[in-house]
C-alpha cells in the first residue's frame, strides 16, 4: 500500500520512518489517546480513508472509526488500556496490549490482543489490524486501576 502525502498542518508526530524511540512514543501516544475515551479525538489519529479490521469487523474511513469507538465505549464501561511496543519498521508498528472494562451488569473483562499498524508519511495511521480475545475477570483481579 502506498503512503499518502498529507498537508503538514495535520501531521501527527512522530512520523515515519520510525526509530525505537519514536515507535515507543507513537505507542504511548496511542495509549494515552485511547484512554481518553474520546472518539472524536482518537479518530483524528487516522487517515480519512483508514482501513481497519477489529476482531471480526471491517471499518473503512475516519467517520466509521468514530462511530465504532462511540459504540465501543458505550458498551465497554470504565475502559482502561495498556499498550506495549512489539516491533517496528520504517512505517509500521506492531503492539501487544490489554485493556479492562465492565459491562452494564458490572461484569469485568480483560481483553488481550495484538495490533499491526501502518502509517502515512504525516504520522496518521492508514491501516490497523487488531486481533482481540476477552477473558471474564473478577473486579478484585483487575490490574489497571
Automatic annotation (TrEMBL):
Domain of life where this protein originates: Bacteria
Pfam hit, one: DUF1348
InterPro entries named in the record: DUF1348, NTF2-like_dom_sf
Protein name from the UniProt record: Nuclear transport factor 2 family protein
Organism encoding this protein: Rubellicoccus peritrichatus
Phylogenetic lineage: Bacteria, Pseudomonadati, Verrucomicrobiota, Opitutia, Puniceicoccales
Amino acid at each position: 500500500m502506498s503512503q499518502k502525502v498529507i498537508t503538514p498542518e495535520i501531521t501527527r508526530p512522530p512520523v515515519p520512518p520510525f526509530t525505537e524511540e519514536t515507535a515507543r512514543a507513537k505507542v504511548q501516544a496511542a495509549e494515552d489517546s485511547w484512554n481518553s475515551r474520546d472518539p472524536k479525538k482518537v479518530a483524528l489519529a487516522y487517515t480519512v480513508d483508514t482501513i481497519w479490521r477489529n476482531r471480526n469487523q471491517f471499518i473503512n474511513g475516519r467517520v466509521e472509526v468514530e462511530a465504532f469507538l462511540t459504540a465501543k465505549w458505550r458498551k465497554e464501561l470504565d475502559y482502561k488500556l495498556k499498550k506495549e511496543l512489539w516491533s517496528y519498521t520504517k512505517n509500521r508498528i506492531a503492539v501487544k496490549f490489554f485493556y479492562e472494562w465492565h459491562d452494564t451488569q458490572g461484569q469485568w473483562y480483560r481483553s488481550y490482543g495484538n495490533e499491526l499498524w501502518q502509517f502515512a508519511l504525516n504520522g496518521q495511521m492508514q491501516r490497523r489490524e487488531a486481533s482481540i480475545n476477552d477473558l471474564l475477570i473478577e473486579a478484585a483481579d483487575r490490574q489497571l486501576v
